[in-house]
Design a protein that fits this description.
- The radius of gyration is 14 Å and the shape is globular.
- The chain has one domain.
- Helix 3 packs across helix 4.
- The chain has 97 residues and is mostly helical.
Length: 97
């Protein structure tokens, strides 16, 4: 992050990249340890909506995937996420109220 700022990049958002080259266990470990990214001093964006990590843990039906996404997003917000990348807007709005 400091190198980006030194090169003139003004707007930086941290996206830990759920799913990309990680095991199921690594993804859920990252959910639990998301607050570790706060040391970077930038907003944290997360996107787990409808990811395979949700389907593998909660099931593949639409209802199971939605419920799993809500539960994981709740944990992510609790652990320091600032921005949720989502598919289901209504349910996400209800979650953050």
């Amino acid at each position: 992050v400091p190198e980006l700022i030194n090169k003139g990049v003004k707007d930086v958002i941290i996206d830990p990249g759920f799913g990309f080259g990680k095991t199921l266990e690594q993804n859920y470990e990252m959910v639990e340890q998301l607050s570790d990214f706060a040391i970077l001093g930038k907003p944290i964006l997360v996107g787990v909506s409808r990811k395979s990590m949700i389907c593998l843990k909660y099931g593949e039906s639409t209802e199971q995937t939605l419920q799993g996404t809500i539960e994981v997003n709740r944990d992510l917000l609790k652990n320091g996420a600032d921005i949720l990348r989502i598919h289901d807007v209504k349910e996400a709005v209800e979650l953050i109220k």
